[in-house]
Amino acid sequence: MTIFEGAQTAAIWGFGREGHAALDYLTSRYPRLAITILNDTQLRETPTGVSVLIGDEATKALAAGAFDIVVKSPGISLYRSEIARAKAAGSRLTSGVNLWFADNPKAHTIAVTGTKGKSTLARLLHHMLTKAGRDVALIGNVGVAALGQNPGRDHTVLELSSYQIADMDAAPSIALVTNLYVDHTPWHGSIAQYHHDKLRLIENPRTLAVLNANSEKLVAAIGGRANVFWYGREDGFHARGDRLYHCDDPVDTASFPLRGAHNLENLAGACTLLYLVGLHEVRKRVDLSGFAQLRHRLEEFTGDGGRICVNDSISTVPEATLVALRAYADKQVTLFLGGTDRGQDHAELFDYLVHANIAGVILLPDTGGRIRQEMAGRQWPFAIRETSNLREGVAIARQLAPAESVFLLSPAAPSFGQFRDFEERGDSFIALCKASA
After folding, report:
1. Quick check: pTM over 0.90?
2. How far is CA 406 from CA 262, 329, 376, 397, in A?
3. Cα 416 from chain centroid?
4. CB within 10 Å: which end of the chain, N or C, has fewer?
5. Quick check: 149 and 157 in contact, CB under 8 A?
6. Which pLDDT value is given to residue 395?
7. Domain chopping of the chain, boundaries
C-alpha cells in the first residue's frame, strides 16, 4: 500500500523547484488526482489543469484537512501550526525526498548533510565515483529535485538539507555528516531541534555513518552509535598541514584544485566513503582533474584594476567565514561581513580577526550594526565601516583598502532582506567589484 491508496485530492505546498517537480510527478503518475497548488505568494504563472490557493486561503484549506495528500516543499517549516491541524483532520503529508525513496527502494544511496561543506562533498563524491567508472546520479539540494529522477545504477548521491531530513522516512545506505553549527533556527525553532533534525539522517543503525571527527558538536552528539566510520583522525583519512594522509601515508592529491584546509577535510570524508565502497586506491592517489569549485564558495575572480576578489557568499555562519579567512591567511584581506540576523555568535571570529592580516572590515545590514556594537571596546588594528548596502560597502572599501588587499565577501550570515538568496548577493558582489570605480 502506498500513501496514495484511495486518494482523490492532493495539494502541492510551495511551488519552487521542488513544487514543480512534484506537479510533474503527480500528473504523470496519478492523472486522476485533483491537484491544488498552495503558496504563500502569488504565482508568476498558473499551470493548466490545477487549482491554486494563495496565502490565508491556502492555510485555511490545509488546516481543514481539505486534501487527502499534501506534498510539502522543503522551505516550508515542518513546525508550522497548519501541519498538525492538517494531520489531525486526516491529511497525509509527504515530501519529494520521501516519494523518491519510496519509488527506489533498491537504490544504493549516499546521503550527505552538514551545516557547511555538504555541497562540495556531494559534488566530490559524484566526481570521484564517476572517475572510478561507477554509474552515479547526483540529486537533491544540489539544484536537481530528487522526485522524478532515476537513480544511478551503482550509487545515488543525495545532498540533503535539514529541511529535507526533518520529515524523512527512509534510511540511506550510507550517510556522511560534515559538521554541526548554528543555522536555520527560524525554521526549526531552536538550535537543539536543528541538530536533532540533521541527525535523523543516521537514526537507523543500519545506515553506515561517515562522520567528521573534527566537529566537536558532532562527536558529542553521536555517543556510542555503532556503524560509524570517522574521518579526520590519524587512524584513517585526515589532513595534516597542507597534505592529505591515510594513517601515516601521504595521499597524492596533486590534481586537487581547491584552496584551504577545510577542503582537504572534505576530501578526507570523500576518500573515507570511497574506501568503504571498495575503491581502495584512494589510499594512494585521487584523480580530481576536471573538478571545479562550487559557485559562491571561495570563487576567486579579478576585479576592477586587477584586484583579487573572492565571492564566498555561501558562507552564512561565522564558522564558514573563519574557514575562508584561513584559506587566505597568506594575503591581506578586506572582509565584507553581515546579513540576516539569526543570533550568530561572532566571538571566535573576532578572536581570529585581532591577529589576522586584515586591511579593513565592511559591515553590511542587518547584522552589521550588532557586530559594530560587539566589536566596540577592543583595539582593532584595521578600519571598520558600517554601510547601508553592498554597493556602498564596495565603494568605501575601494577608498580605504590598499591595492594588494583581497576583497573577500564572506558574510557569516544569510542574505534575506536585501537579496533574494546568497546567489543573488554573490552575483551582485562580482558585478560591483568588476565595475569601474
Report:
1. no
2. 20, 11, 25, 10
3. 15
4. N
5. no
6. 96
7. 9-96, 104-283, 299-434
